[in-house]
Structure formats: structure tokens, C-alpha cells
From TrEMBL:
InterPro entries attached to this UniProt entry: Carbonic_anhydrase, Carbonic_anhydrase_sf
Cofactor(s) needed: Zn(2+)
Protein's name in the database: Carbonic anhydrase
Signal sequence segment: none
Binding positions (Zn(2+)): 44, 46, 99, 102
Protein origin, superkingdom: Eukaryota
């Protein structure tokens, strides 16, 4: 696979304009009777992991936050900010998706070597115990594991 260049990305952007559908500004959503999205998904930044593919997400279906290892603790400030931006209490569902063969499991640090399911359960617990997240969102916390080889997503 060749290295993706900025020129490649800009060319792809230009090609995508033929089918681009404008999105409303946040300030226009209420006037257009567009309900705020209530789901946020936290997953790994691994380039093999695409929630748009394995959950069939369309633009605007959910907010997707990505970080190394898909750790919810690293995304708490983003989740709180998003909830405030959308209207406090709007977010009702927090989906945490880890995956098999995660690079984070290849480090020697024992915390990162824990198996995938244990990491998901730890993130679920962290979100549910966070004093920063609204109670309604804590009730909607769910964890999943994506199998990189099969594409199957399994709830933990």
C-alpha cells in the first residue's frame, strides 16, 4: 500500500464534492426540527477500525470519539463538552468498542496487556462511576468487542 499524501486526500475531497450533502449548522437544527443525536461511540484510533462500516453508521447518526486503545477515560472531557454543546442531558447512550489485536495490548505495561474484554468492562465501570457524566448517560453505557478478522461486534 502506497503512502497516502495530502495531495491524495485533497483529490479525494474534490471527487467527493459531486455527491456531498450539506449538513445543517447546529444553530439550524431546532428550526429544521432535527432532533439532537443521543449516542456517542468511543473506539480505538486504529486505522483498521471503522465504526461507520461495522455499525453501518451514516453521517450524523452518532458522535464518534477515537483515541489510542479506545479508552473511555481519555474521552470523558470530549463527552462532557459534546453533551453541553447538544444540550445537557441530550446524550443517552455511550457505546464503548474495543477490538481484537489492538496495538495497546502489545505494550509491556501490564495494564495495557489485559485482555480485550477486561478492558471493555473496565471502561464501562469507569464511565458508570464517573462523577462528570450525567446519570441518564451512565444508564446507557454498553461495551462491545469488534473482531478484526470477522467484523463481528459482540456485546460484553
Amino acid at each position: 500500500m502506497a503512502t497516502l499524501t495530502v495531495a491524495d486526500l485533497l483529490a479525494r475531497n474534490k471527487a467527493s464534492l459531486l455527491s456531498y450533502q450539506p449538513r445543517p449548522y447546529l444553530s439550524d437544527r431546532a428550526a429544521l426540527n432535527i432532533p439532537p443525536r443521543s449516542s456517542v461511540l468511543v473506539t480505538c484510533c486504529d486505522p483498521r477500525v471503522h465504526p461507520e462500516e461495522f455499525f453501518g453508521l451514516k453521517s450524523g447518526d452518532a458522535a464518534v470519539l477515537r483515541n489510542a486503545g479506545g479508552r473511555v477515560r481519555l474521552s470523558l472531557i470530549d463527552i462532557i463538552t459534546l453533551d453541553a454543546l447538544l444540550g445537557h442531558g441530550t446524550l443517552k447512550q455511550l457505546l464503548i468498542v474495543h477490538h481484537t489485536d489492538c496495538g495497546a495490548t502489545h505494550f509491556k505495561d501490564e495494564d495495557l496487556k489485559a485482555d480485550t474484554i477486561a478492558r471493555v468492562k473496565g471502561d464501562i465501570e469507569a464511565a458508570q462511576q464517573s462523577e462528570l457524566l450525567p446519570e441518564a448517560l451512565k444508564k446507557g453505557v454498553r461495551g462491545f468487542v469488534l473482531d478484526i478478522k470477522t467484523g463481528v461486534v459482540t456485546e460484553v
